[in-house]
Structures are given as C-alpha cells and as structure tokens.
Write a structure and sequence with these properties.
This protein is of the alpha/beta class and 359 residues long. The chain contains 18 helices and 13 strands. The strands form three sheets. A five-stranded parallel β-sheet has the order 6-5-7-9-8.
C-alpha cells in the first residue's frame, strides 16, 4: 500500500498543525471522538478524547451513541474492531493507513485455517476453543466467532481462558505465544500442557501425542517490542537500583515475567505508575512511548525503560503523526473510512461481543 500526505501537511509546523487540529475539533464538536492507544506519540495523545489499551478503547467505541466520526489513533486491527462494534451510522478512520501490526501478520488466515483443519481429528470445535488475541485481522476474528470462540486482550486474557475451559477441554490461542503461555501459567496450566504450533512446519511440528495431551495450543507468534526484554536486564536494574519495582507487559517472555514485580496490560502499567508513591523507582518492560509519557506525567518518580540499552518502539504505532491527524480531521469527507464487509463483520462481532460480555 502506498500512502503520502499532501505537501501542505508534510511541511506544516507543529504549532500550525496543533492550531488546525484544535480548529477542526471545535468545528466537528460532538460529532467527533478521537481515540488514542497508550503507545501513541505524546503530541498525538494530547488531542485524544479517550486514551486506553485495546480492550478499554473497544469498550469506548462500542458505547458511542451520538458521534458520527471516530478517529482511531492506533493500528489497523483496532480501527477494524471499532468499526465492527459500532453501527452503520458511525464512520471509523485510521489517520495513517500504513499502521499495521507485525504480530498480527504472523497469523495468516490460510495458515490458521490449515491448522484448524488438522485439529479436527482432535475434536475441533467440540473440544477446542479458539481464542484470538485482539492483535489479529478481522478475518481471524470472524473465524473465531464462527467457531464459538472469543477475542481477548492482555486485560482480559485470564477471564477469556477461564470461560473457555468452562466450555471445552482445550484452547487454541493465537497469535501471541507469550501472552498465551503467561496466562496459562497464571491459570494453573503446567508447561507440559502447553505446546507451540509452528505454522512453518508440517502438522505444526507437533506429534499426535503432544496435541492430545495438551490443554493449550499456542500459535508461534510474538511482539517484537516485548521480546527485547531479558532476565539480565532485570538483574542489572535490581543491582543498580535496590528496591526498584519492575513491571512488564504479558507479551514479554515468561523468563522475564517470572522475575517482575507486576505484570499486566498497558492500562495496568499506567495505573501502577499513577498509584506508586512519590520517589518510586519503576523500570517498565514495554513500548517506549508509553514509558516516556509516564516519565513526563510523573516527574516525582524515576520511571525508565527496563533494558537500558534498546529502544523498544512500535514503529507502526509511531507512524501516526500530528500531520496525519490534521489531514484526517480536515478531510473526513474525502477519506475512505475503515469498513469490514459482511459476513466477516457479523462473525467477528460475535467474538468481540463475547469478549465484552465475559469481562
């Protein structure tokens, strides 16, 4: 996909863009709401009506009644979900159409369908519950809905797992193996009861015995940001800052999660920083824009990135700029909104509504 802003937006100064964005918001008034994920740039977040993680923003999108335009400063799968959860009178826009998700791309619909076909011999939907992480394309959410499953986010993965095991014997969790594994451990599933389906290998690289004995089948996928963090980073922080608190996102590998003081969604990380007493030292294992925003918001606390030597930035979240936001708000009538066609829309909605229902 090719995308380029008109030159007047590319050359505009930050102050000019801010002034024009403010004017456009005032002109649209209550017809508009701007949603921004926690990982967005600080200057973009400042214009958001609502800030949150993917679960929280999904709830907010679903609750919109009066607005006509939802501008979602995030990535493509988030805007798709907002479109699915709102009625036809709402128009959802993604300011930068190139903002995707590498993790979501690790679960191609053809590969997942091939895996599901193979899993039919182990009971299929009679025994296995599909759980699709929010970080998937609408087509996979629809597949999940058609087979009685649900969507989860890092905020509600434990609740999704509990609900699934109340219905069926096994769970097929995709695309993030680390979130699935960490949630399984939290639920009480042993490592031996979890297997990783490698989509690049025949039969997922697993034996029939492994699949039969498993309780959770994890897709081989990951977030390139959260796999930056290592146990030695934790050791270095604890050595340099005795008493420091280390908090990480559950997309982080388990050998780091097991050493952390707190593990949770982006909303959890934000709330932790907010509630920590003045003088706290907090190292965070997540995306750098969120960490920088927390350090900016709470100057009375020392808040920094866990690794100390990498820059864990989500390039796709970082794509959205003031330039993109300004162009979108000033040209809503000329921009193609994000739309999910039927029957994908209805099938995906089943899985998303189940997510909201169980939490």
């Amino acid at each position: 996909m090719y995308f380029s802003l008109p030159i007047e937006y590319r050359q505009a100064t930050a102050e000019d863009l801010k002034s024009r964005i403010t004017a456009a918001r005032q002109k649209l008034g209550s017809r508009l709401t701007i949603l921004a994920h926690h990982y967005q740039r600080l200057e973009v977040v400042e214009f958001a009506d609502h800030i949150g993680d993917s679960y929280g923003l999904s709830k907010i999108a679903a609750a919109q009644k009066e607005v006509e335009f939802i501008v979602f400063c995030g990535v493509h799968f988030m805007a798709e979900s907002a479109d699915i959860l709102t009625d036809a009178s709402k128009m959802v826009y993604l300011p930068n159409p190139l903002a995707g998700c590498p993790m979501a791309d690790m679960a191609e619909i053809a590969d997942v369908m091939a895996a599901w076909e193979y899993l039919q011999q182990f009971g299929g939907a009679k025994r296995i519950m599909p759980i699709s992480y929010m970080n998937t394309a609408a087509g996979l959410k629809a597949f999940t809905g058609r087979n009685g499953g649900l969507i989860c986010t890092s905020s509600n993965a434990a609740a999704a797992l509990k609900w699934s095991f109340e219905q069926r014997e096994k769970v097929f969790f995709f695309p993030d193996q680390h979130l699935g594994y960490n949630t399984g451990i939290k639920y009480g599933i042993t490592p031996k009861q979890m297997v990783i389906w490698d989509f690049s290998r025949d039969d997922g690289g697993l034996t029939e015995s492994q699949l039969e004995k498993s309780r959770i089948i994890l897709w081989k996928g990951h977030c390139h940001v959260h796999t930056n963090f290592l146990p030695e980073h934790v050791a270095a922080v604890r050595s340099k800052y005795p008493g420091a608190k280390i908090i990480v996102h559950p997309e982080t590998p388990h050998n780091v999660v097991a050493l952390a003081d707190g593990v949770g969604s982006t909303s959890f990380l934000v709330n932790y920083c907010e509630k920590a007493p003045a003088g706290s030292i907090i190292a965070i294992g997540t995306e750098i824009n969120l960490i920088n925003r927390m350090a900016h918001a709470y100057p009375d606390k020392k808040i920094f990135e866990l690794s100390g030597q990498t820059c864990p930035v989500c390039a796709n979240m970082y794509r959205t700029t003031l330039n993109d936001l300004c162009y979108t708000l000033e040209n809503l009538k000329d921009i193609k909104p994000i739309t999910v066609p039927e029957p994908t829309r209805s099938d995906a909605r089943l899985a998303l509504e189940k997510m909201l229902e169980i939490t």
